[in-house]
Amino acid sequence: MPSPLIRLHAQDNVLIARRLIALGETLADFGLRTRAQIPAGHKIAAAAIAEGAAVLKYNTVIGYAARDILAGEHVHSHNIRHEERAPLPEFCTDVRPVEMLPAAQRATFMGIRRDDGRVGTRNFIGLLASVNCSSTVIHKIAAWFTPERLAAYPNVDGVVAFAQTSGCGMSSPSEHFDLLRRTLAGYARHPNLGGVLVVGLGCERNQVPELMASQGLNANSRLHTLVMQDSGGTRASIAAGVAAVQAMLPQANAITRVPVPASHLMVGLECGGSDGFSGISANPALGAAMDILVRHGGTAILSETPEIHGVEHLLTRRAVSREVGQKLLDRIEWWKRYTAGQNGQFNGVVGPGNQAGGLANIVEKSLGSAMKAGTTPLRAVYEYAEPITESGFVFMDSPGYDPVATTGQIASGANLICFTTGRGSMFGSKPAPTLKLASNTPMFLRLQEDMDINCGQVIDGTLSIEQMGQQIFDHILRAASGEPTCSELLGLGDHEFVPWHLGIVS
Question: Where are the domains of the chain?
Answer without folding.
Answer: 5-81, 124-253, 269-489
